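Continuing from the previous page...

OK, I double-checked the sequence for Cadherin-related family member 2 against my notes and this is the correct one:
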Amino acid sequence: MRILRHRQVRRLAQAHTAGKTCPDPTDSKWGSYPSITVLPPWPGAVAFWLIATDVDQDTLSYDMAGPFGDRFSVEGHTGIARVAKTLDYEVRKDVVIVVEDRNDNKPVFQNPPSSASNDTVGTIVCTVLAEDRDTGSSGLVKYSILGIIPNTTENVNLFTVSDNGSIYLNGLLDYNSKSTYYQLQLQAYDGGGLLNGQHVVQRSQIIYLPINVVDVPNLAPQFIGAPFEGSVSEDAILNKEILRVVAIDGDKGINDYIYFNITDSTRPTWFTIDSVSGTINVNSTLDREDLLKEDEAVRLQVYATEAKEDVNGIRAWNSTWVTIKVTDVNDNDPKFYFCQTADCNFSQAQNTFEGFIEEHASSRVPVNNLSIVAYDPDKGPNGTFHLSLHGKDRDAFSVFPNKVVNQGEVQVLVFNSTLVDYEINDNMEVEIVANDSMSYKTSSAQVTIKLIDINDHAPTFNQSLFVLEVSENSEIGTVVTDSIQAIDPDTGPWGSITYQLLPDRHIFQVEPASGVVTVKNGSLLDRERQAVHYVTLQAQDGGKQMGSTLLEIRLKDVNDNPPVVSSSYNAFVKEEVDGVNVKIQAYDNDEPDSNNSRICFEILEGPYSRNFTVECDSGVLTNGTTLDREAIDPVLLGRIQLTVLVFDLGVPSLNTTVNVTINVEDINDNQPVFNSSLYEFSIKERLKGAKIGVMEAWDADQTEVNNRITFTLSGVGTNNFVIHASPQPGNLHGGRYQGTLSLDPEVTLDYETKPNNFSLTVQAVNTDSTVGLNTTQAVVRVVDINDEPPYIVKDSLRQVEVAENQPHFGVVTTVKAEDPDTSADVKIQLLSVTCLQDQRDVGPVCRDWFVVDADGTVSVNESSAIDYELCDLVHLIIRAWDNHTCENYPAYSPDGERPRSASLVFLGVSPSRNLGQQRPPVPPPLPPQANDSDAKGTQEINFSIMKVEFIRKDETNSTHQGLFSIDTQRENNMHLGRITVATSLDASLKGKYQLTVQAKDNPFSGDSLATNHSLSLFTVDESQKVQLQFSQPASEVAANSEEIKESLTLATRTTVYIASIADFSEKDRASRWGSEALGSGWGGSQPA
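Thanks. Re-ran it with the corrected sequence; updated structure tokens here:
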């Protein structure tokens, strides 16, 4: 068997390594196409050995695969191949084993370059090479740049690398302005291939490729330390070194030699420069004073030129300016010049000067016309010198300034003005000496000063202050003073004096020549405005020299001001309680503590002035008697206006007046009074809500709050009436009220029901009941109208026995009828006749047996024959008729009446009751009561509610069902119907419930009889529920409950019910009712 290494045969024996590098199949120990004979060919026999080496010395493992790989088995760690299946020469005598390459080698760089020059963009900087020992695409190497140092945005794409390893320059390099060194992070990678069954791309180690930038000569020289400045003393020796100019080649990588020369200078001969070292030296004599207009400096232009040519074929150069300051030495003396500083050229010095000044000129006043300038051209301390004054008159003058730096104007000043006196010496001389502070050299100048005579004496007064007096309001021309004179020692025009007053306020005037002071405007002399005037009397000589004195002119008082009251006065007092105490404030501007300013007070005569007094001195106003608001005219509304005269004690006396208003406040000190002690009224019965009459009362108090009157009613039947209070017409000032008495809108009076005459007590009440109450009597008589039907007297309806077939005819009984009306005309009528035989109706057989006359007489009809066998019982149905009954009222007795019949009536039923909006704790209405007059068999009565209507206060109504229920009870011979609230009532409804209640009997035989009655139940608002809390315990309140109810009824003028009385703790007081009261505003008297 042969093992062949051939690319076309796809048989593989694989060697796996634990490292990264595959064994080298080209190693010479493999030989050349070895051939192996396999004996013996049975399974388990060793066929051959696989031997491989690894350059990395990694541990190897062996395996075999392919179409015939199953014929052999290989030991992984030794490479021994054994026969796995029996080999048959006749089937296959040769097996070729091919070892294929795998991508197990990384590219490796070979000697990268390390420098680059200023190459142009797009050129190749250098080329790198990396080798990969794998074959095929696994050995195909490419390159990438992973990073660059310096890592800046500008450098990111500065270099690129091609697939063949060439590195290109994408941007410009600059040795001097950019980096001189770059470092590229490079990596090589192959085309990828199989390794351990996966496609793998092998990458080399990262290498760092340094690129050094090589400089080229393309920049001009650069000066180091510019700008260049130096200094040198003006007395410097020749060739003295001043400063050194330094320059270098702009191309730092080349650093060519530099040569220097001076091309321009403001003083061409003064300085030179060494061409190699750049040192600047003194070349000639220097004089700083020649440079005064050039800021004491020399400017040089220095050129620096490279020794070699640059890339453009020329020698690069650069230039700079050098400034050399020439410093001063003390080589000049100070000198004096006649000029002004601004236009001095200091060409000609001078040592004599002449000026003039007035005598007695003030200290530090300069001598005129000198124009002296002192000058030393040296600088600083060298040009500093001191000035001093010498000569015979040096004590009278001084020199200014004492010290001068370089130059300055010199002034001779007056030092002692008393020595500068024309009368003593008209020409004065001094010497100015200048002393150099450094060299002590001196120079001097002689100064002649001529004095000018002046008016040196001013007028004077012998006093600085004169005190004068004049009366206020003096007439024009009144002399204030004529004895004040000024003195001037000068003669001639200098001693001529004129006078004037300052300031000129047009109050006083002075005669210019004599100095006499008089009044100019007396109306401006008001002591109260200004008691003292100060003016200056000024004296002036011919030379306008002035002297002055102060005049203090005091004004004497006259009585020219009336008293002044600060304001009017208002006082508020309660009648009969408070007293008036008003202090009137006044002042007088005349002289204090004199009769002109002393003030007195007096009340002028008026309607109420005698009730008040005022103290003359103090101005305290008080009332002399008790004030009564009702004694004041009502038109004044309680306001009393007094006029007080305020006058002074001067001559003549002056005065003013002030009004003092006393507001007398009303209190409730009067009780209402009726116009009459008895009022009598009459009212027809059956008139609902009719007006009865008017009562009048008057309260003398003058304010509405105290004179407003309300009326209350008390007495039997009060609940039938209401009384309304209103002001009387034309009552302009109040206090007069009328009480209109009317029937309650829900009540009508019945003459037949007692009482029909009412005696009411009417009470007039105002807001304060403590002042007492006033009452009157009102008698209301009910006038009868014919409104009641007649009725049959029951006792006259009795059973009468009449024998049949009797020969006697005549009256068998008399039926009596009555009418409660006073004007009734009652007649009896027969309505029907019922004939009975053994309790059976036998028809009209007895119709004509009896007759009934209008006066109630029942007689046997003479033409009739009474036959017991035909009829044993006759029932006569009769009725009473009132011939005078008023229209719209019943004229007949109800239903007709027959013997032994009866009707149902209601007794003692209250016409109306009040209901709250909730069931408890509203007290239930009084029950309806009924009885039946039948003697037997019909005395069982049942009650029922037939209809419920709610009538609102606006007269609209609505029907309701199920709100109330009624139960029938019996007490003695009376039937009671108790009405209860069946469900909660609507709290929003306000008005009354109108109930129609029916009472119906239950006879043993025959039809039931019934009668209806109307009952009103009034709602009670929550606002009418009142909680009262007492300080006494509940037991004491209960014991006095009737008295409390009576007081509440009187106060509220309504019906009061006490719901409960209980003791409460302090905690309960905040959350529960202590005592509750329910009241009705319907019926009885309305609250005022």
